[in-house]
Write the structure tokens for this entry.
Amino acid sequence: MTPRPDPAPAGRSAILGRVSGVRFDDLLAGRILARERPDLRARALAHLDALTRGEAARSLLGTLVAEGRLPLDAARGVQERVDRYRAGRGIGVLAELLGRAGVAPERVQEEGRRLGPSVDLERLGRALVAARLLAPAQEERLRLQARVALDRDLAAEVARFVEGRQALAPAGTVVLRGEVAVPSAAEARAIVDRAIVDRAIVDRAIVDRAIVDRAAPPALPAPRFAIPPWVDVGEARVGARVADRYRVVGRIGAGGHGLVLLAFDEAAPERPLALKLLPRGARAQAVGRFKREALANSLFHHPGALEVVDAGETRDGEHYLVVEFFDGQDLARALELRRRLRPAEALRVARRVLEVLDAAHAQGVIHRDVKPENVLVSRDLERVKLMDFGIALLRDLGEFDDRVFHTVGPDVVGTPRYMSPEQAASEALGPTSDLYALGLVLYELLTGAFPYESDSPLGYLACHITEDPRPLAAACPEAARWPAALHDLVTRLLQKDPDDRPQTAAEAIAAVDRALALLG
């Protein structure tokens, strides 16, 4: 389940990511802005209310940036303060747990100060192990308990705000015990050191509850990998086992197709996994997607495809799908921050997706849902993963396809915005359908715009069938300086007639390489 300034963790966008509900980051950012930018207070409150009602798809800072009310650099500055405050409270929780475990506060302070202002839970924990103040297993368990306590603490604070029992930002208030907190820039820089020295920075009742809930080692085994800061480890299922072998570490996200959890296989605790869970009684279409994705993944292998590790049904009737965990962002989130990519960057991303499609098509697998949300990238854009083969078209399955995958249903055929003309018209599909969708993605990466305009899914279907795409230069004036080979590539990918497009992903890759060579 996105871009942030450098001091923040990679993986999901704190500033511009899609969100569901109010998060602590939104709340604290709103408090900071309400105190320092009174002109934005009303807009911040309105957006927090929209998040509460589930009517907003962007974070508070992302919305203010998109609306032109807040410069991106200013949003980054606010987010950095939020991150430092969160880090300070987390270290305060860990310091409390370490004190209860018998570690001398002076030694914790010494190690924390040695690490400097960039200290975080993981670095402090490793330092304590290196100093032989904690055994590795004990450190891992305490660090995970600290994350559980912190996330629950912050979730409780958000709940108090949502329930109307806590104001956005009373003037001048700076309280660090789970109440209203509005750190200034100087306070944000100093808070980590204060957390190590002054354990009263946290509400100890939160720590007590985390220990009571999750203290016993069998109930809370720790993974042997760093948990990304954006993962919610306050999730109620943390520590639980799924399918008798997977331990839940936190929540990655939730959506129409169930819950996505960070987990690990008890036989390989060093490897993070993404565990997708469907609740008991889930719709047959959702179950069909799980089955189809697992089978599609078994038909071909490529390092650029998100690997499916396992799939099945638990004793409690929950369908699960285990895939490799990728600590990155999807292209939709990358575009929200970058607006668009440089031509060479866009072509390299497209090339990597085409390599996966080439391997899939060779085995008769047509993705049918190539779109920015299904392409994961690392922050430097060097690593690319194509995911979600849940509605892939699989060749030569005969009656097996009808018996197993009819549950996908005729209504689940892709995303209208990114459908090929033949897909929009419910006609037979070949590999070139995926190439058309990739052409739409490439157009968007290059220009930051879309070649068609519509207010509805049906409108997009009509555009793909009947309208010519807007020329690149009309969407992005800089396109006039791009080589003709790049214009030709996009034009060919977006042809209405499948026969007029590149006929294979390999042919499209060759065209990408020609354009890249001309860009230098």
